[in-house]
Design goal:
Blueprint lengths: L6 H37 L5 H21 L4 H28 L3 H29 L3 H5 L3 H11 L7 H17 L9 H14 L3 H16 L8 H15 L4 H12 L5 H13 L8 H15 L2 H4 L1
Helix pairs in contact: 1-2, 1-3, 2-3, 3-4, 3-7, 3-13, 4-7, 6-8, 7-8, 7-9, 8-9, 9-10, 9-11, 10-11, 11-12, 11-13, 12-13
Length: 308
């Protein structure tokens, strides 16, 4: 006897297979995301700047594919967010600066536009993680900084679990502002600063004092009417140097380019950048970041007489 299935049964069977495949794909994406997150600590110790740049670009494409399959995976989204920011700061901004120094202004504009979009994507990924946790984040971001601060203290109070989405969203947002020619984005500055200040409340050591560096740069770059203060900027940078024991050279780099340049302190500028270039290897956990700092320090030193 021939076994015959109804069309409805066949459809249900096919749907079941498809759903099972989707579940398996999601499981595979989650597993791969966990592996990628775990490998980040190993990548920090990579020694070659050029290879790392190519690898980061390829890795972003793979992570985006996995994120598309498993968009609710926080770990995966934050690794992707951090990868965008690292690639934009470490390679795309460098390409823009080199093009500008060579008077290739169209190429420089293209690279800056690339960096802007990379930072935008990073911001959106970070905010997406926050949105998945608490639907009220969008409304909170529209409120006065004091109300936003209260919201963050209520919903983001765990130094272990809550720092990463706050910081990476703010870092992407800040990078977007820095690269964009859209001056209307300046209205977002109080929100970004409030997010970073809350990171600082939770863990000042996160990502080698990144919140301290961010606030040092903000205070150094913005006038008092926007909440800035060069005195506070210097204090934040000096605190970051202490927290990192001067091992994380992103601190010295940003101290030089964001504070020393602003106050026209040539001696400090040269001292900080030469410290980066002359320092021996500082260890696995900061090696690649220090390679990036060295590349950018060399670029700045090559035009010191134009800058100061």
């Amino acid at each position: 006897m021939t076994c015959r299935r109804s069309p409805q049964a066949a459809t249900l069977a096919l749907l079941s297979l498809l759903l099972g495949a989707c579940n398996m794909n999601g499981f595979a994406a989650d597993q791969a995301g966990s592996i990628a997150a775990g490998s980040m600590s190993h990548m920090r110790g990579f020694w070659d700047y050029e290879i790392a740049g190519h690898g980061n670009a390829a890795g972003i494409m793979q992570l985006e594919s996995l994120h598309g399959i498993s968009p609710q995976n926080e770990e995966l989204a934050l690794v992707l967010c951090a990868s965008y920011i690292g690639y934009a700061f470490g390679w795309v901004e460098v390409a823009a600066e080199k093009a500008e120094d060579s008077e290739q202004y169209e190429a420089a504009a293209r690279e800056r536009a690339r960096a802007e979009w990379l930072y935008r994507r990073a911001r959106d990924l970070g905010l997406g993680v926050m949105r998945n946790r608490h639907e009220g984040i969008d409304a909170a971001l529209e409120q006065h900084p004091d109300q936003l601060r209260a919201y963050l203290r209520e919903h983001y109070d765990d130094p272990e679990e809550d720092v990463a989405p706050l910081f990476w969203a703010a870092a992407g947002w800040g990078g977007l502002m820095a690269m964009s020619e859209d001056l209307s984005l300046a209205v977002d500055l109080p929100v970004i600063v409030t997010l970073v200040e809350h990171v600082l409340e939770l863990d000042e050591t996160f990502e080698d004092g990144a919140a301290l560096v961010f606030l040092g740069g903000f205070n150094s770059q913005y006038p008092a009417q926007f909440g800035g203060s060069v005195e506070k900027g210097k204090e934040y940078f000096e605190r970051a140097l202490k927290v990192t024991k001067r091992r994380a050279h992103q601190v010295q780099l940003n101290y030089a380019r964001l504070y020393a340049l602003t106050v026209n302190d040539r001696a400090l500028f040269l001292s900080l950048l030469n410290e980066i270039i002359e320092a021996p290897d500082q260890g696995h956990d900061v090696r690649l970041a220090n390679k990036i700092a060295r590349v950018r320090a060399e670029l700045l030193l090559s035009k010191v007489d134009l800058l100061l």
